[in-house]
């Protein structure tokens, strides 16, 4: 780093930036020695796109630490220091993906897939963000890519005139059903199919584990729990359709913008939402009522990786001057994937050790914290499993039905 002093925009000199965030500790869960599978390490991270990093929102962070060039360097270190097999990233601007992230990650042996948000009322998409998924090309082979734009899927439930909405200009909003407009948030998800590359070339018959990896970013506004629930339903409908065709395990990463008490969390973890959930009472445009509570369900048995390993969700994954809470998760289909270990998120004290500031700050470049996990993914179902694999492994149990 340059020895030149760094100046804030008010021309007052400040100290040299602190070092990078320290490496995290990992917590592992005990495993039976004969459990089979392919181990993969996954990172999910909302990187705070530059377009959203406004000084008036993060007043305690010095202006120089909010500058994109500075934050991008810190974000790159967050990724390059991890050596994960997969990176599921949210809030990646399109131009930055094409001109920086894709180039830099390719240098490090990763290939990527990108999906930009849909914006109906923006003249240019240069600074529109989206989801990017990178994978280590030496360890995994990319097979199939399915974009999941929630904005295009809503009409299947609500029977609104989606072709009219796609032609909207702001002055014509009154011509379109309000519920349809409420759902037009531009948020996206990715569903990708991967196959593992056998690690030992001397074993030509080594099974290639296939699995789906989803990367999503739900709508941010806490006033719209109905929209977020509808988006999570659309994601699971798409994933359920793909999973049903091939009976493969699935990993779902992302910023769900929903706390553990939310209807979205209950839906993901339980496969349904109880009718008296408080979030269902906030349905001003009858979106949930149009779908029907009884139809808000999915059949993929999911487990939250951090809760499985740590016993509870992190205290927070988003930690700003105005809010602290858990919004980010990594979900796995629990019948075929065992969470092995997770990285321990920094505490309030560790975060604020950099000048008594929350996120972002000069050491941590985003308002979110990255989630890391190592998973053991079962081989294809047609392989004969040893009977010992049917034993209980801590809180996870393989049944004869799921291991057939």
Topology readout:
Elements: E1 6-7, E2 13-14, E3 26-28, E4 38-46, H1 63-66, H2 68-80, E5 86-93, H3 94-107, E6 110-116, E7 129-136, E8 140-149, H4 150-153, H5 155-158, H6 162-165, H7 178-183, E9 188-196, E10 210-217, H8 225-246, E11 250-255, H9 263-270, H10 287-291, E12 302-304, H11 305-310, E13 318-319, E14 324-325, E15 328-333, E16 337-343, H12 348-352, E17 371-377, E18 392-393, E19 396-397
Parallel strand pairs: 4-5, 10-11
Antiparallel strand pairs: 1-2, 3-16, 4-17, 5-7, 6-7, 8-9, 9-10, 11-15, 12-15, 13-14, 16-17, 18-19
Helix pairs in contact: 8-9
GO molecular function: 3'-5'-RNA exonuclease activity
InterPro entries: CCR4/nocturin_mRNA_transcr, Endo/exonu/phosph_ase_sf, Endo/exonuclease/phosphatase
Domain Endonuclease/exonuclease/phosphatase: 44-368
What descriptors fit this protein?
404 residues, Deoxyribonuclease I, Chain A, seven-stranded mixed beta sheet, six-stranded mixed beta sheet
Give a brief description.
With 404 residues, the chain is α+β, with helices and mostly antiparallel strands.
Helix content: 10-25%
Q: What amount of the residues lies in strands? A: 25-35%
Radius of gyration: 22 Å
Shape summary: globular
Protein name: Endonuclease/exonuclease/phosphatase domain-containing protein
InterPro entries: CCR4/nocturin_mRNA_transcr, Endo/exonu/phosph_ase_sf, Endo/exonuclease/phosphatase
GO molecular function, one term: 3'-5'-RNA exonuclease activity
């Amino acid at each position: 780093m340059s020895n030149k002093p760094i100046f804030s925009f008010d021309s007052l000199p400040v100290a040299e930036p602190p070092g990078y965030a320290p490496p995290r500790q990992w917590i592992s869960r005990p495993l039976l020695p004969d459990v089979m599978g392919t181990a993969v390490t996954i990172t999910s991270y909302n990187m705070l796109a530059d377009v959203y990093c406004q000084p008036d929102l993060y007043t305690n962070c010095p202006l120089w630490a909010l500058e994109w060039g500075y934050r991008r360097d810190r974000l790159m270190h967050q990724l390059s220091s991890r050596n994960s097999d997969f990176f599921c990233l949210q809030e990646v601007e399109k131009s930055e993906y094409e001109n920086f992230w894709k180039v830099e990650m390719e240098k490090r042996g990763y290939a990527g897939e990108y999906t930009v948000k849909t914006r109906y009322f923006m003249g240019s998409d240069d600074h529109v963000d989206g989801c990017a998924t990178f994978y280590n090309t030496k360890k995994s082979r990319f097979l199939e890519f399915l974009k999941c734009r929630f904005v295009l899927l809503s009409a299947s439930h609500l029977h609104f005139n989606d072709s009219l909405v796609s032609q909207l200009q702001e002055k014509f909003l009154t011509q379109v059903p309000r519920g349809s407009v409420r759902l037009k948030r531009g948020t996206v998800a990715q569903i990708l199919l991967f196959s593992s590359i056998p690690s030992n070339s001397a074993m030509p018959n080594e099974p290639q584990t296939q699995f789906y990896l989803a990367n999503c970013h739900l709508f941010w506004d806490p006033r719209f729990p109905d929209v977020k629930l509808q988006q999570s339903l659309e994601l699971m409908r798409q994933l359920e359709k793909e999973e049903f065709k091939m009976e493969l395990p699935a990993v779902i990463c992302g910023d769900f913008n929903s706390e553990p008490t939310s209807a979205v969390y209950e839906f993901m973890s339980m496969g349904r939402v109880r009718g008296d959930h408080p979030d269902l009472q906030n349905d001003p445009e009858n979106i949930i009522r149009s779908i029907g509570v009884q139809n808000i369900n999915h059949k993929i048995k999911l487990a939250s990786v951090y809760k499985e390993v740590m016993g509870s969700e992190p205290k927070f994954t988003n930690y700003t001057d105005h809010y602290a809470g858990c919004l980010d998760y990594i979900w796995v289909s629990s019948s075929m994937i065992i969470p092995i270990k997770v990285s321990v998120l920094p505490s309030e004290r560790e975060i604020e050790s950099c000048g008594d500031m929350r996120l972002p700050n000069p050491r941590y470049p985003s308002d979110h914290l990255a989630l890391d996990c190592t998973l053991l993914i079962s081989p294809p179902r047609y392989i004969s499993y040893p009977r010992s694999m049917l034993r209980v492994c801590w809180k996870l149990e393989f049944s004869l039905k799921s291991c057939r």
